[in-house]
Amino acid sequence: MKIAIVEDHQMVRRALCALVATFEGMSVICEAKNGCDFFQKIKEIPDVVLLDIQMPVMNGFETCKAITDKYPEIKVLMLSQLSDKETIFQVVKCGAHGFFTKNSDPDELQCALRKVTDNGFYFANDLALVLRDVVLWNNRQLESYYGSIVLTNREIEVLCLAAQEFSSAEIAEKLFINVRTVETHRKRIMEKTGARNFLGAVIFAVRRNYISLDSF
Questions:
Q1: Which residue of 23, 56, 158, 202 pairs with 163 in a disulfide if CB–CB is 3.0 to 4.6 A?
Q2: Euclidean distance between CA atoms 78 and 168, whole angstroms
Q3: Do 185 and 155 have their domain in common?
Q4: Last residue of a domain, one of 100, 125, 150
């Protein structure tokens, strides 16, 4: 797995690089001090960008939007010391695939990187609480938009299993289909819901009562 690290504090950036280097199957292919620096330095497309939120010149939210617009195949895992509701809202809104707090256990970072790659999303905070807050956010606008979306029964099955953090391989095994078919369903779900990331599709599923928050 190829990782890029974008963090303005050199000491923190170097520590993250050293930590990721200890994770099996992972390597850091790019280090940058802000979003502009990242776009100037990128030569090889990473699988995941570990992205700080509070940076000068081009902050994490601006950088995330630019990355997901230009390189939609890249997963973005945002880093911050903040974990308040407004920060979480902005993380979801800018299209990030996950959120990791800097005061989390360093060993959890490896899990976060693998989950954001395998499942399409990861949140260090309790996922049910994140979803509950976001589902209540901008309620009327989302309800009007979501009301026109129709998913097939198979797409709903895939979405519900993905929301429970099953990987594509695990979903394929449970539904007796191949992994490529699961990935096709995931792609169609994203297209139909207009979600910037799979967390957006999960929010859609909660709002349409395909998934109960009690299941998380």
A1: 202
A2: 23
A3: yes
A4: 125
What are the angstrom distances between the C-alpha of 80 and each of 59, 104, 139, 163? 12, 10, 27, 24
**At 153, which CATH number?**
1.10.10.10
Q: pLDDT digit string (tens) for 72-119? A: 899 999 998 877 777 877 888 888 998 888 888 888 899 999 989 988
From CA 207, how far away is CA 164, in angstroms rounded? 16
Instruction: Please report, for the domain that includes residue 45, its CATH number.
Output: 3.40.50.2300
Residues 139, 100, 53, 87, CA torsion sign = positive
Contacts of 30 by beta carbon, 8 Å cutoff, 6+ apart: 4, 5, 38, 41, 42, 43, 44, 46
Are residues 211 and 160 in contact, defined by beta-carbon separation less than 8 angstroms? Answer: yes
Longest dimension (CA), the chain: 49
- Which residues span the domain enclosing 52? 2-125
Distance (Å, whole) CA 190 – CA 28: 28
Expressed in percent and rounded to 5, the helix, strand and coil fractions of the chain are: 55, 15, 35
